[in-house]
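Attaching the record inline, Q. Sequence:
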Amino acid sequence: MAVSSDDEYTAYVMSRLLWLRRVAYLLCQDWSRADDLVQTAITRLYVNWRRASRADNLDAYARTVLVRVFLSEQRTGWWKRVSVTSTTPETFIDVVDLDVALDLEQALAALAPRQRATVVLRYYCDLSVEDTATALGCSPGTVKSQTSRALTALRRTLEFEGNPL
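Structure, as predicted:
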């Protein structure tokens, strides 16, 4: 029995959903918003599944869709991204040193969206400069300059009592 295109899509998304969610969280710093970004990205992936499934690297294709959804959303008005609720969303952090994680999270949140995307792709997703440039739709030189500026800002933000990390 042949596997249908929908079955292939479902299997792929189920196997990569947690990874996509983590990347989205690193980009936007909010679990609820990360879920929305992933939902939009996997919807776009489904619409273009015929082309996506033929990609040489399906993870790179999905990651590129997710990053472009994030950057596109950054250009919209704040009122489209804000939701007011009466309860605090449930969050979790799976790290050993909570203080370091919170400092890093705040430092990442302070970066410009494109710089944050560059850092996440280069250091969390472990992409090369060229692969990051492809995912962001820019030149390798832009990736290098954005990475340099982002790392400088992170170092400045994460300095403790005059001792750089």
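The chain has eight helices and no strands. Helices lie at 5-28, 31-47, 49-52, 58-74, 98-110, 113-124, 129-136, 140-157.

More tomorrow.
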